[in-house]
Specification:
The complex is a heterodimer of chains A (111) and B (114). With 111 residues, chain A is mainly beta. Chain A is built from no helices and 9 strands. Chain A has a 5-stranded mixed β-sheet with strand order 1-9-8-3-4, with no helix packed on it. In chain A, strand 6 and strand 7 form a beta hairpin. Chain A is globular, with a radius of gyration of 13 Å. Chain A starts with 8 loop residues before the first strand and ends with a strand. The mean pLDDT of chain A is 92. Chain B starts with a strand and ends with a strand. The mean pLDDT of chain B is 93. In chain B, the strands form 2 sheets. In chain B, strands 2, 4, 5, 6, 9, 10 and 11 form a 7-stranded mixed β-sheet that branches. In chain B, strands 1-3-8-7 form a 4-stranded antiparallel β-sheet, with no helix packed on it. With 114 residues, chain B is an all-beta fold. In chain B, a hairpin with a 6-residue loop joins strand 5 and strand 6. Classes of the chains: A mainly beta (111), B mainly beta (114). Chains A and B meet through strand 3 and strand 4 of A and strand 4, strand 5, strand 9 and strand 10 of B.
Chain lengths: 111, 114
């Protein structure tokens, strides 16, 4: 699985968009970008994933650059409940090996 | 549909004692996993299972044993607990064959070894 780089922490004002970056310059053609988040003391929760097209669901949007070397997770209107650690993971889809979590980005949403 | 349930949620042990953490999932998932998370750290994989009757080692397997006698249950055992095993333990399950292959996690089991 390709390595990812995320900033250790970010702040965001409540109600504003939170843009969480992830660099994955060694990503290969069949690797997807996955995002999970972990709210304090809870188990991680899947958010979204994508290959090369931008994706959107009820939780967030995922923007992947054309060269696929980086991506951004967007929470359009951050709330206090979005304060969490966000993990960006790159791996081949349907791969039957365990997911490896890095240290992620700690997002603090401030009132 | 409870998802992934872990028991117990909290436990305090003395060094050398043994215990078993139980993970149960009702989603008919093939794969199950045990992770541990220490303060300020990411999750580290202890053991996992790709189906009933199978287990495999993860990144930090020493000091732990696991069993998957039934598809819905995955047990994590500590034979002789050590203070270094003080951690939060998370169980997860999924079906990797799906494109998302999303992991579903339990709420965690907080273990303190004195």
């Amino acid at each position: 699985d390709a390595k990812t780089t995320q900033p250790p922490s970010m702040d965001c004002a409540e109600g504003r968009a939170a843009n969480l970056p992830c660099n994955h310059s060694t990503i290969s053609g069949n690797e997807y970008v996955y995002w999970y988040r972990q709210i304090h003391s809870q188990g991680p929760q899947y958010i979204i994933h994508g290959l090369k097209n931008n994706e959107t669901n009820e939780m967030a949007s995922l923007i992947i650059t054309e060269d696929r070397k980086s991506s951004t997770l967007i929470l359009p209107h951050a709330t206090l409940r979005d304060t969490a650690v966000y993990y960006c993971i790159v791996r081949v889809s349907r791969r039957n090996t365990p997911l490896v979590f890095g240290k992620g980005t700690r997002l603090s949403v401030i009132a | 549909n409870a998802g992934v349930t872990q028991t117990p949620k909290f436990r305090v042990l003395k060094t050398g004692q043994s215990m078993t953490l139980l993970c149960a999932q009702d989603m008919n998932h093939e794969y199950m996993y045990w992770y541990r998370q220490d303060p300020g750290m990411g999750l580290r994989l202890i053991h996992y299972s790709v189906g009933e009757g199978t287990t495999a080692k993860g990144e930090v397997p020493d000091g732990y044993n696991v069993s998957r006698l039934k598809k819905q249950n995955f047990l994590l055992g500590l034979e002789s607990a050590a203070p270094s095993q003080t951690s939060v333990y998370f169980c997860a399950s999924n079906i990797p064959a799906r494109e998302a292959g999303e992991l579903f996690f339990g709420e965690g089991s907080r273990l303190t070894v004195l």
